[in-house]
Amino acid sequence: MTVADRFKPFGTTIFAEITSRAVEAQAVNLGQGFPDFDGPEFIKLAAKRAIDEKPNQYAPMGGVPEFTNAIASRWQRDTGQAIDPKSQVTVTAGCTEAIPATTLGLLNPGDEVILFEPYYDSYPASLAMAGAKPVFVTLHDRGGSFAFDEAELRAAVTSKTRAIILNTPHNPTGKVFSRAELEQIAGVCREQDLLCISDEVYDRLVYRDEHNPEAEHVSIASLPGMAERTITLNSLGKTFSLTGWKIGWAIASPELTEGIRAAHQYLTYAVSTPMQYAASEALGAPGSYYEELTATFTARRDALAAALERLGFKVNRPAGGYFILADHRGVSEPLGLKTDVEVCHHLIEHAGVATIPPTAFYDHKQRGQHLLRFAFCKTQETIDAAVQRLQKLARAGV
Ligand code: GLN
User: 112 near 133, Cβ under 8 Å?
Assistant: First the structure.
């Protein structure tokens, strides 16, 4: 074996595994969460122009000033907090680099970090890189809406706990943490002197409607006493349907930023210079862009949810993000299929539709076995094709 011990428990990511199975089986891919359409033309044009007109050598380690200024202005509009872009914003290779830059730069071996499960799979791997230990608190499935128990959160804290990782809107449940829930988490952070690492990459994808009338994205850093202990992570990919650009950032106090940069300078040093110029133009998108984006994703979510319900899945319309986490038992039990992995493989092979088995995101596997994750960040044609294939399989009764 050549893989280092720290990575052995993680194997190949579920996204790579399912995407390669999907390609092999020529399945419609509702697995890995990426749009199968591109972001707006004005941003792509800005990138082409930036290559011709802007510097193409290393960017400053923390980020191109035009871009970090744009990030700081957006942060002030969102939270009312003025930050210094030079000492509080670090541009990273997607949020995926920002996560290990934060864990490596701020945690010590043996530190414990609380993760809500289901969790995005980068978190435990990034903790392992830092020698830190995850402690899991479950978002319990209460009939399709997911919630943690405050007593369980409090009980998870020990003298070694150093941080809580939060993700809102949440992958894979589609939960948008309410202000009241964030107050509870913030309360624990303040009382126990913990950091909060808050992954907010889906912050622009919130679907406030009759299904989730209260849905609203709140940055936990905006709550009292949290700015100085929160690292807020975000990226361009989800908001602008440009997941391949790999442009992300971390916002934190100057002290915490020093830690993040201690790692970032040796991970990537800096991120693609022209793309950062283009990214600063992206952040200037008009309000209508975001309205259209959420309207489009709401329609795709509803089309997929309605079709899944007709097939016998139990679905709660998610309040945010890219995914529907459906209860598959109404469909799988009559077929004698039990786990999410069995159902996932069955659908790839027999229907030609790929999904993600969410037990990949659980430490307590049995708590996620009844669920299946479907991505709806796809064109209407892709969703229609997947639905037709699932209906055909249902008609065949296998
Ligand atoms: N964030 C994407 C998802 O949850 C996957 C990203 C990746 O493949 N690493 O599907």
Answer: yes
Q: Which atom of ligand 1 is nearest to the CA of 122?
A: 9
Nearest Cα residue to 80 out of 221, 195, 183: 221
CATH number of the domain at 384, please.
3.90.1150.10
C-beta 15 within 6 A of ligand 1: yes
Give the residue from 264, 286, 308 where a domain finishes: 286
pLDDT in tens, 281-338: 999 999 999 999 999 999 999 999 999 999 999 999 999 999 999 999 999 999 999 9
Work out how many domains the chain is built from and give that number. Answer: 2
Compute the distance between CA of residue 345 and CA of residue 341 in angstroms, rounded to an integer. 6
Dist. CA 368 → ligand 1 center (Å): 18
> First-to-last CA distance in the chain?
40
Query: Degrees (nearest 5) of the Cα angle 158, 163, 167?
Result: 125
The residue among 248, 266, 286 that closes a domain is 286
Q: Which atom of ligand 1 is nearest to the CA of 96?
A: 9
pLDDT digits (tens, 9 = 90+) for 352-393: 999 999 999 999 999 999 999 999 999 999 999 999 999 999
8 A C-beta contact, residue 373 and residue 290: no
Residue 145 belongs to domain with CATH number: 3.40.640.10
> Atom of ligand 1 at shortest distance to CA of 201?
1
